[in-house]
Amino acid sequence: MKSNLRLPLGSLPGRIVIPALVLLLCAPAFADDPDNCLLCHRYRGLSRLEGQTSKLHIFFVDPEYTVSRRGAHSRLGCTDCHERAEVSVIPHKTVTPVDCARQCHLGSPSGFARTFNHANIPRMLSQSVHTADTLKKAQTTGGALLESGQSECLYCHDEPSFRDPTRAIPSFSAVAPRVFDRCEICHAEKVPADIEYYFQHIASRLQPARPPVELAQVCAVCHSDPTFMKATELPDTVTSFMRSFHGKAALLGEETTANCLSCHVTAGENVHLMLGPKNPRSSVNEQHIADSCRSSACHPGADKSIAATSVHLDLPTSHGTPEFLLALAFIVLTLLTFGPSAALVLLDLFQVTVGPKHHAETEAHHVARRLLRTPAGREQLKRFTISQRFQHWLLALLFILLVLTGFPMKFADRSWARSLVMAFGGLQAARRVHHWAGLALLISLVGHLVYVAWGLRRHARSRTETGEEVGYLSAFISLPMWITPTDVRKTMQLLAHLLFLRKDKPSFGRFSPTEKFEYLGVFWGTILLGMTGILLWGAQITTHFLSGRVFNIATIAHTYEAFLAAIHVGILHIYNVILAPKVFPLSLATLTGDTPIEKLVEEHSDMVDEVAHRINPPEMEVRE
Q1: What is the total count of domains within the chain?
Q2: Comparing C-alpha atoms, which of 85, 81, 76, 204 is closest to residue 154?
Q3: pLDDT in tens, 249-279
Q4: Which of 6, 357, 381, 594 falls 20 to 30 Å from 143 in CA-CA distance?
Q5: Are both 218 and 313 inside the same structural domain?
Q6: Rg of the Cα atoms in the chain
Q7: 42 within a domain of the structure (yes/no)
Q8: 483: buried, middle or exposed (CB in 10 Å: 19+, 13-18, 0-12)?
Q9: Same domain membership, residue 312 and residue 223
Q10: Are strands 104-106 and 114-116 parallel, antiparallel or unpaired?
């Protein structure tokens, strides 16, 4: 589509155009360019800058659009839209803005012209929320969206292009040549038709005219503009949509996800008949909105309660709602758990760097080395059994898969997120990996509970020194991963030591309070993430039992708990088992079961003392 062009003959563009007049007489016309307009307009540099308004007018028209039949307008001549009398002379006269509803003539291989126009579109818009008066009164930060006289179609449309036909017909590239050859048996001469053009046109119309992100950008021109929102008292619906699951899926390249029109236009209806929520015929009316969610393209098996799920939930502006309070609670929980743990790590690193060495450590090292020289000592100082090591690495593998496939949804607007999703084969493939990895994690949790229950049973039936059975209650209370009052007291002593307020560093047993805290955190996180993940995965089933608003809660809980788990593992746990000076480059405890002697002495000296008392001292002396 070309704008007005008036060039002073003495100007540089004028000096270019004049020679072109000579070429115009002999230059061949492009396929559907009978007036040979592309002789000049095919050059990308053809433009003009208005001195008074500083507006840049670009007059470039891509010739490939016409030659390669890239869109619905590719079969139109320029004068089908522009007034011939205005553009047939050079310099052009003042060009009247194009009226998209005017009648145009479509050429055909048979040589007969067919007339066509969009005159029915303004009539449809007059019945929608986007009436001509509404569009003209729209106020935006940048001023009027269109210049006087321009067609209203330009509010939403630009040069229409055919979308990739393989998205609608996956085998298009393979079958197209054969289909064209077969069709042209009749349609080449007997019933002339441009088969390739019509095939692309149909394949394009079998899918939305624009990808979800591009469509959201069109809507955002008004519906995310501060001036427009203030004048109309409407919320920023495009931003809230992009923060939703559907919006994030669109940012990650998923083009089958719901877009703006999926909800705001009834399936099968014309998009120009978009109606407001108060209209009883509207797809977003409270009586019909559930039908939009339950369409065959979205959640066909869901209950009507799914409509209570808020697609446009905007947490920063939803003060006082359960969703806002839940998000706030998770933020506070993150600060209260990650903050102190991170402080201990930083203080420990500082203590290792500048803190003094104590003579008590030398004796502890001596005892530990003596124990490690005996078979019984080496066996009892192993902090992790083979089964525990296997469970740990299975957990690590599943956790990594869940982070790699889940975190792109959290940061969908980052370039690395889409690249990561594409590495898994696209969003659908990444979601499948995420779902099954999550299910495997839940199964492994059940397996670990069976493992704990079996150990609890054995311990409960064991005998004390007096010959009595320990009992299930005592065995349960004595499980090694419970955080005890002693652990709390020693943690405070550790904090005092790291702050140089206490000389002696407290000693711990087989597991330190930090390790116990991480272990219980895995339990809490796996259960919460598993429950919310199953709710979201099986939305079409769970809506028959729960309100759609539960999915808002589940999404927030799933997202924030995953973030909390990731920063704990990705920062604190990785430091403790890989980056800490005592274990760098990697703690062997979860590989061989052997803890580095520095870490064993400094953090688990109580365990060393217990093993030393259980082993016969003479045996230790002989081995030495």
Answers
A1: 3
A2: 81
A3: 999 999 889 999 999 988 778 889 899 899 9
A4: 6
A5: yes
A6: 36
A7: yes
A8: middle
A9: yes
A10: antiparallel
Amino acid of residue 442: L
C-alpha distances (whole Å) from 225 to each of 218, 232, 238, 394 are 11, 11, 10, 49
Tell me how far apart the alpha carbons of residues 103 and 582 are, in angstroms, rounded to a whole number. 81
Q: Are 441 and 526 in contact (CB under 8 A)?
A: yes
Say if residue 91 is preceded by a cis peptide, omega within 30 of 0. yes
Q: Is the pLDDT of residue 4 over 50?
A: no
The answer to the question of residue 471 being in a domain is yes
3-class state of residue 482 by DSSP: coil
Lookup: tokens for 291: 């039908």
- 301/102 Cα distance (integer angstroms): 45
Q: What's the token pair of residue 64? A: 């490939």
How far apart are the C-alpha atoms of 554 and 563, rounded to whole Å? 14
Q: CA 212 → CA 70, 242, 247, 250, distances in Å?
A: 20, 10, 8, 6
Tokens of 418: 């889409």
> Would you state the pLDDT for residue 15?
46
Helix (H, G, I), strand (E, B) or coil at 405: helix
Distance (Å, rounded) from C-alpha 417 to C-alpha 422? Answer: 9
User: HSE of 553 in the Cβ direction (CA atoms, 13 Å)?
Assistant: 13
Q: Is the pLDDT of residue 185 over 90?
A: no
Task: Kindly state whether residue 51 falls inside one of the protein's structural domains.
Answer: yes
Tell me which of 81, 96, 111 is where a domain ends.
Answer: 96
CA dihedral 421, 427, 428, 434 (to 10 degrees): 60
Q: Give the chain's mean pLDDT.
A: 85
* Integer Cα distance of 430 and 422 in angstroms: 8
Residue 57 main-chain phi, psi, to 5 deg: -105, 120
Domain for residue 92, yes or no?
yes
Given a cut of 60, is residue 291 above it in pLDDT? yes
Q: Please give the structure tokens belonging to residue 513.
A: 């309070």
User: Token digits for 257?
Assistant: 């996800």
> Is 313 found in the same domain as 221?
yes
Same domain for 394 and 298 = no
Of 449, 464, 479, the position where a domain reaches its end is 479
Residues 394 and 300 placed together within one structural domain of the fold: no
Structural domain for 419, as ranges: 384-479
Provide the H-helix boundaries in 156-211.
172-187, 195-205
Q: What is the pTM of this model?
A: 0.83
List CB contacts of 546: < 8 A, sequence separation 6 or more. Answer: 305, 535
